[in-house]
Design goal:
heterodimer, A: mainly alpha, Formate dehydrogenase/DMSO reductase fold, 12 helices, B: alpha+beta, Alpha-Beta Plaits
């Protein structure tokens, strides 16, 4: 037998008995950040490829979601801060060893850029749109002229943002569940997939939907592959790693992870997408809804479960 | 200079005096603590062993809390003491997540708080409050670079361990076993 307890009666709120310092705000932000990264990645990708005409929803309409998601996500992050009035300290320095620092700077760049992106398509989306001010019209002309370099910068930032939502967690070696380098690519893939799901939900164009459907199917398969590797790494790892994995293999997160994330959030929508590609009729909203829902549950499960895993006590 | 602490687990009786001394000295808010006592019971009856450990921030050489702090509020000062500058801390919680010892907590005023090795006392040549108050003299503090310091002498002739060395933090609390 081995047991360890605090005999001095330590019972600090949100620290004991299990760490719970990050509540709903962080997983919500990680989800919205990944979603925005996915949407912006594909919008910029198709502009760079010169396929604006064929991918109207991807390039224009769906990008409206990105700044909204980012602003809500930033709001959630701000809500989570416990010393709110000092938030500006984030922008007095840049610390490369802290993912949160360069993540904050990435957000600082990509949020206004995503707004500019949407604004540059306003005249195409809403005929007769007028910016009222001359300098705004001039700015718009300049952006439209430089759309491809602008898209390149934003695509790189979108990838950084997507990876960052995973690396934010994987940088903490005190939490064995998070401390795996697969989390960065895994969260990026999941973010790209949820982004695609949102675009597919909005798109009315059959050809566009089919193209996105095919990419999304590949992304889901990559995601499942990464998740298998995640668990293989845990099972072959040290005691703290196998304990972390056991939370999902019989532990308290088994149902929420395997049923809601893996089956309903990945396997089932992937099957539906495959059927759709083979010509079966599938309700257009169903696969995107499941993917978006599964992605959200995935972030919540990972943040909650990760905080339980530890080295001591 | 490298400040460190040695905790004699054979002498500690778990009275909690170090905890109260710290709370009083540092005006720690009610319900919080910067140090705490862990009772570790192992074995099976009748051969049972008890280890008592007075724990606090490990003032790690490779401090993950300092590494992941986005503003630089968490920093290391001379002697290896890890501190938090209150008005640079945004209360994001990254350092709390990063600490394998769960030694940090969010102060009710918003910033993150933790053991300072009583720097205000150490600067004056005194010991941290917990060390001076310990009735069994089980806490030893001092400079590891000074062979005559209390901590160096305590570590010289005894077996010791650190907590969670596999976390790679190079902790500076040494538990004499």
């Amino acid at each position: 037998m081995k047991e360890e307890l605090f005999v001095s009666g330590r019972d600090i709120p949100n620290i004991d008995p299990y760490l719970h310092i990050w509540h709903w705000q962080i997983p919500l932000y990680l989800y919205l950040g990944g979603l925005a990264a996915g949407i912006l990645f594909f919008a910029t990708y198709y502009v760079i490829k010169g396929k604006e005409k064929q991918m109207q929803t991807t390039v224009k309409w769906a990008t409206i979601i990105a700044p909204i998601a980012l602003v809500i996500g930033l709001g959630a992050l701000f809500w989570d801060l416990k010393h709110k009035l000092y938030f500006w300290q984030l922008y007095t320095t840049i610390r490369f060893t802290s993912p949160m620092s360069w993540g904050a700077w990435t957000l600082m760049l990509i949020t206004p850029m995503s707004i500019v992106w949407v604004a540059s398509y306003m005249k195409e989306m809403i005929p007769g749109w007028d910016w009222k001010f001359g300098f705004l019209n001039k700015f718009e002309v300049w952006i439209i002229k430089n759309r491809v370099p602008f898209a390149w910068i934003m695509m790189i930032l979108a990838v950084i943002l997507g990876v960052y939502t995973g690396i934010l967690l994987s940088a903490f070696n005190a939490r064995p569940l998070w401390n795996t380098s697969i989390l960065g690519p895994l969260f990026l893939t999941s973010g790209l997939s949820t982004g695609l799901a949102a675009i597919m939900w909005m798109s009315k164009d059959e050809h566009e939907r089919k193209t996105l459907n095919r990419i999304d199917l590949i992304l889901i398969l990559v995601e499942l592959f990464l998740i298998i590797h995640l668990f293989m790494g845990f099972m072959a790892g040290s005691a703290v790693k196998t304990e972390a994995a056991s939370l999902f293999l019989g532990g308290e997160f088994t149902v929420s992870f395997w049923v809601f994330v893996i089956i309903l959030g990945l396997a089932f929508p992937a099957t539906l997408e495959a059927l759709e590609l083979r010509g079966f009729h599938v309700p257009a909203w169903l696969p995107p809804f499941l993917i978006l829902f599964g992605g959200l549950v995935f972030r919540f499960v990972m943040v909650e479960a990760g905080q339980i895993t530890r080295f001591l006590y | 200079m490298r400040y460190a602490m040695a905790i004699d687990t054979k002498k500690c009786v778990g009275c909690g005096d170090c905890v109260v001394a710290c709370q009083t000295e540092n005006n720690v808010p009610h319900g919080y603590c910067r140090d705490w006592i862990v009772e570790n019971v192992s074995g099976s009856y009748p051969s049972v062993q008890i280890e008592l450990r007075s724990e606090r921030c490990n003032h790690c050489d490779n401090a993950p809390c300092v590494r992941c702090c986005p503003t630089g509020a968490s920093h290391i000062v001379e002697g290896g003491i890890v501190l938090v500058t209150h008005d640079e801390c945004i209360g994001c919680g990254a350092c709390i997540e990063s600490c394998p010892y769960d030694a940090r907590y969010p102060h009710p005023e918003g910033y993150v708080d933790k053991c300072t090795f009583c720097k205000h006392r150490v600067d004056k040549g005194q010991n941290p409050a917990c060390v001076d108050v310990c009735p069994t003299h089980c806490l030893h503090f001092g400079d590891l670079d000074d062979p005559n310091s209390d901590v160096s002498k305590a570590l010289k002739n005894r077996k010791w361990k650190v907590l969670a060395p596999e976390a790679g933090t190079e902790p500076q609390l040494y538990f004499l076993t």
